[in-house]
Amino acid sequence: MTYGPQPTNNGRNMPNSNPYAQQPYGQPYNPQYAQATASAPNAGAYQQTPINAMSQVTYERATHDAVTRTYGEMTIGLLITAAVAFITQMTGAYISFIRATGLIGILLVAGVQIGLAVYLGVRVMKMQASTARIWFYVFAALMGFTLSTIFMAYSLGTIGVALLVTAGFFFALTMFGMTTKGNMLKAGPVLLIGLIVLIVAEVIVMFIFPGDTAMMIITALGIVVFAGLTIYDTQFMKRVFAQYSSQGPEAIKRLSILCALNLYLDFINMFLYILRLFGSRD
């Protein structure tokens, strides 16, 4: 069944057979009035404006709800990470695990984390949103398990200050990404190369040319790279929600998990670099 006015053979709409239907204030049908209305300038545009405006409002509301859902999922992931890290430190679970497994345990946890991140990125659109959410929370818990070691290197006050600075910086970057007219998505390949260079340089500095000055330079570079990635992932979030807006709420829920994971990783890495750069060692 096709809804809306049906065209005749000549492509025009059939006139209403009821001369009193849809006339202003129930007035009798007046051919001269109808002809004048149809021939008025921009008559069609005037009639379509409320519909287009309503569609735009609906689209903006749906996009706002999707973005809110993404930041909500990211926040829950961060809270899980913080809770697991604190509990792990209080119980000494990570230290006990490393003593029992050694280097194999460290590599195992790191491998599982990387595997989960890749698995979610590749399979998130092919699984239920609830399943993707569970895997994201598991990933956040594993991240908290490994991040518990920061309590042994930094004081609670230092960690709190670094967390507040990161939160403020992250908020400013995401607001910039949401409101700027510039297209940061074009910088994706450059940011990827910068991330690879950052990882390689950090490994070289750590094992071959250790030194506080070199590590501080690498740390500052890391903050810059992940600041760019935060803006990139914010604009990526807007783009994918626009592309998948017609696919239904289930697709939006899956994409919310994926975007939450990207922004979560940006936040965590930026926090660690800020903690290293501005934090004072105990």
Automatic annotation (TrEMBL):
Q: Give the location in the cell.
A: Membrane
Q: Where are the transmembrane segments?
A: 76-97, 103-122, 134-153, 159-178, 190-209, 215-234, 255-275
Keywords for the protein's UniProt record, in alphabetical order? Membrane, Transmembrane, Transmembrane helix
Q: Does the keyword Disulfide bond apply?
A: no
Q: How does it sit in the membrane?
A: Multi-pass membrane protein
State the source organism's domain of life: Bacteria
Question: What are the annotated GO cellular component locations?
Answer: membrane
The UniProt regions of compositional bias labelled Polar residues, in chain numbering, are 1-17
- Annotated region Disordered: the residues are 1-26
Per the record, the major location class is membrane
InterPro entries per the record?
Bax_inhibitor_1-related
Give the UniProt family note: Belongs to the BI1 family.
Q: What is this protein called?
A: Membrane protein
UniProt source species: Bifidobacterium gallicum DSM 20093 = LMG 11596
Per the UniProt record, the lineage of the source organism begins with:
Bacteria, Bacillati, Actinomycetota, Actinomycetes, Bifidobacteriales
